[in-house]
Design goal:
Layout lengths: L5 H4 L12 E5 L5 H15 L3 E6 L4 E8 L2 E9 L3 E3 L7 E3 H4 L5
Length: about 100
């Protein structure tokens, strides 16, 4: 996750009490349904601005951008494309490197 307001939202107990700007999940067979349905709704309702779902099975990254409780943008990238963050323009991910074969 990417936290942009740590100084303002760090509680005396040392825990972050704010909302992350960007959350990235990597799907696995055991969490696939939970991440695709329940977590998407949780982050949307919770005020997260951007949610990335990395799907190793399909070699894709889906990016959701949220605003005011709505999905305002949905992008899907597949290798050999580069995934681009709508919130952080300098954040570009080369999917050929993310999904490269493991020797």
């Amino acid at each position: 996750m990417v936290i942009c307001d740590l100084a303002e939202q760090l509680a005396p107990d040392g825990y972050y009490k704010g909302v992350p700007t960007l959350v990235c999940e990597i799907l696995s067979a055991s969490s696939r349904k939970h991440d695709l349905l329940k977590k998407l709704s949780l982050y949307l309702d919770g005020g997260v601005k951007e949610y990335w779902i990395v799907d190793p099975q399909n070699k894709t990254i889906a990016i959701y951008r949220f605003s005011d409780g709505e999905i305002t943008e949905h992008l899907t990238f597949k290798a050999p494309e580069n995934a681009h963050s709508p919130t952080f323009p300098a954040l570009v991910v080369d999917l050929t490197r993310v999904f490269r074969p493991i020797p």
